[in-house]
Amino acid sequence: MNDPCAHCEEMMQPYLDHALTDEEMAAAERHLSECEPCRRRYRFEESLRVYVRTAAAEQMRPELREKLAALRIPLE
Amino acid sequence: MPAVPEGVATPGTVDHVDAEPEQAQRLATEARDRVRFEEDALALSDQVYRVARHLANSREEAEELMQETYARAFRSWRSFTPGTNLRAWLLRILTNLNIDRGRRQQRAPQMQPLEANDYYLYDRLAENDGVSDDERVVERLSQDDIVTALSAVPHDFRDVIVLVDLGDFSYADAAQILDIPVGTVMSRLHRGRRILKRELAESALEEAT
Asked: CB pairs below 8 Å between A and B: how many?
C-alpha cells in the first residue's frame, strides 16, 4: 500500500460500521495506533455520527399522534 | 313465517348451531389481532416519524406521509406477518408512498452529486480556525447545518443514510425497505456520507466567512 493514511481513510466507514474482517480491523488498528492525524479524524467521524443523529432527531407533534390514532378502524 | 335474515342460524339445525359460535370466535380472534396490530404500529410511530421526517422534504410532507402510511397499514394489516419486523414493514410502505408521490419525478435531472473524501470536513473545519481539540470540532456545526445539509443530499443517497444512521436499520433491512441489493445500500451509504460531509463543510464555512 503506497499511502497508509489514504488506505486508512478508505477503511474508516466500514471500520466504524463494524463491517471489516478481523484481519482488516487489526491492520486499521495498527495504523491508528501509530498515526495521530488518522486517529483524530476517526474520532471526529465517530462524534459526527452521534451529533448528526441527535441534531436530526425531531419530535412528532402531538396533533399528528392524535391523527394517527384516529385512523384506527373502529370495531363493529 | 318471517324471513330469516341471511347468516342467522335457524333453531334445530345442527350445522348452523355449530357454525355460528365458530364464526363468532373467528371474528373475535381477528378483531383482537387487529387491535393488537394497531397498538403495536402506533407504539412505533415516534421511531417511524424520526426516519420519515428526513425521507420527506419537509415536516408537512412527513406528516402527510405518516398519515397515508398508517391509513394504508391499518387497511392492509393482514399482509403483515406477525413476528417479523413491523418497523421495517411500516417504513417499506412509507418509502413506496414517498416515491408514488412523484418525489423522483420532481427532482431536477440527475446530477452527479459532488463528494469529497472522508477527511474533507474535518480538515476544512480544523484548518479554518486551527482547532486542536478534535472532539470539539463537531460542535462548530449547528443543528440547522445538519438538517439543511441532510436535505441537500440527493434522495437515493439520503434514504440510506436516514435508514441506517438515523433509523438504526441494518444494511439488510435497508435493502429490503428500499428494494435494492445490500451492495447498493453499502455503496450509497459510503458515498452519501461523503456528500453529506461536503454539504456540511460548505454550510459551516459559509457561516464562518
From this structure: 93
